[in-house]
Amino acid sequence: MRNHVHFIGGGQMSEAIIRALLKNRVFNSNNITVTDLNKEREQHLTETYQVVTDQKEEDVLTQANLIVIGVRPQDDLKTVCQTIYEHASDQATIVSIVAGVTIAQFEAWLDSDRAIARVIPNTLTDTGRGYSGVALNAYANQADLDPFLNGFGKVTHIDEALIDAFTGYGVAGPNYIYYFIESLVDAGVLAGLPRDMAWEVALENMVGAVEMLNESGKHPRQLLDINNSPAGVGMNGLHQLNASDFAAGLQRSVLKAVERTTELSNQEGD
Ligand SMILES: NC(=O)c1ccc[n+]([C@@H]2O[C@H](COP(=O)([O-])OP(=O)(O)OC[C@H]3O[C@@H](n4cnc5c(N)ncnc54)[C@H](OP(=O)(O)O)[C@@H]3O)[C@@H](O)[C@H]2O)c1
């Protein structure tokens, strides 16, 4: 079976994955097929990425070794699975990116001993960074899947029970960073710096601080201790953060995102 990925549903998330797979040369455009109910989406994907959208779904399903279910949770997943059940090769791995739908639900709908991966894709696909969380069923093979999954960022394999926590913390993760940077830049402006300068300095400090953590292997507390002399500028600034709701507010934000993920998953399971 040749390396061929078929996407059922060519919406925003599938498009982001396709763009990264092509950019990272994991697939050629003629090894990517897509079917979408919305013909304008198919046309857009063919015009933009030269992927194949004019074949019959039954035919491409027999050829694909990877089948990505990229429709929304509220779409007709049972019919999608019935079509896969009828036409896909037994050797194909089914990759669901559908939020809130469990491996057990797919196993029931697909009614077979198929390899299934439930992927919570990260949204930093254009950068090659960010972790997707992946849970596999008993028939799926990590070594077969990782080249595909690494084609749109980094991958961490997790127990399915951690998917909601992973979604609220990891996939929603760029939100926290964007918000932090925005708040920090405003602080620079408040202190009198031009916004452009505040922006550049904040981004450089962000990237540099991450590099320091990675390169030194030190805990943030150790770097804070090195940076902050007695009664110094940094220590005075940090005292205000210590006395604020900063840490607890951030942690509440993550817990709320996890809680909301679980609420939505339960609704999809109804
Ligand atoms: N966007 C994200 O950042 C993100 C992140 C993580 C996970 N996800 C998951 O990724 C999935 C897709 O999200 P999205 O944002 O890409 O949604 P989207 O942009 O709305 O795309 C879904 C597409 O699937 C099409 N579709 C629906 N039923 C279909 C079927 N039976 N066969 C073929 N195509 C069908 C829809 O067509 P119509 O509009 O004509 O119905 C639509 O074009 C969701 O399950 C979501 O939970 C998304």
TrEMBL record:
Q: What is its EC number?
A: 1.5.1.2
Keyword NADP appears in the UniProt entry: yes
Q: Name one Pfam family in it.
A: P5CR_dimer
Where does the Pyrroline-5-carboxylate reductase catalytic N-terminal domain start and stop, copy by copy?
Answer: 5-100
Where is it localised? Cytoplasm
Main localization of the protein?
Answer: cytoplasm
Query: Keywords of this protein's UniProt record, alphabetized?
Result: Amino-acid biosynthesis, Cytoplasm, NADP, Oxidoreductase, Proline biosynthesis
Question: Which GO BP terms sit in this record?
Answer: L-proline biosynthetic process
Question: Domain Pyrroline-5-carboxylate reductase dimerisation: where?
Answer: 160-264
Q: Which reaction does it catalyse?
A: L-proline + NADP(+) = (S)-1-pyrroline-5-carboxylate + NADPH + 2 H(+); L-proline + NAD(+) = (S)-1-pyrroline-5-carboxylate + NADH + 2 H(+)
Q: Annotated Gene Ontology MF terms?
A: pyrroline-5-carboxylate reductase activity
Q: Which NCBIfam families match?
A: proC
- Briefly state the protein's biological role: Catalyzes the reduction of 1-pyrroline-5-carboxylate (PCA) to L-proline.
Protein name in UniProt: Pyrroline-5-carboxylate reductase
